[in-house]
Amino acid sequence: MTKAVVLRTTGEVEAITLPEQDGGYEVIRDTVGGYIDAVRAADFVGYVHDEGLLIGLAPNIMASMLFERPIMGEVVIVGCVNENGVYDGENYDVPEIFLTEKFARTCLGMAQDESLAEAVFAQASRLLDEGPKVYAVTDDEFDRWLDTGEMPDRDPD
Hints:
The protein is α+β, with helices and mostly antiparallel strands. It has helices spanning 25-32, 61-67, 101-111, 114-130, 139-148, and strands at 2-7, 13-18, 36-40, 44-49, 75-81, 87-92.
């Protein structure tokens, strides 16, 4: 069983337990309301609705702040590094900070700030209008991106 939290668009934080069977995929899918995609931070992963931006789900203010990009809809957060501190693609217990009362109060306060919600939604709309950026990269640049996350320093157009 894996400890996780659900960050709701209302700002509520709900602790849940994911079953080991299928990595909790069914529970995650049911919680976000459809097919899932993953967004990653240093030591945690958020599972989001795959088409949240496209179908106009409500902005998730705290998730948007945590992942530094517009996130729409409910988000399930789990830990993503093993006991050696290495990302290996598996789900682990969510970092303890997400289970604190202080974190829950912060999420609620942020969700109730209408100007934050408007800013996140405006940014999401701009990104949706712009479409994805596609980069042509060399094999070396691609390998560096895989190793470090560093993108080539040039305009994709």
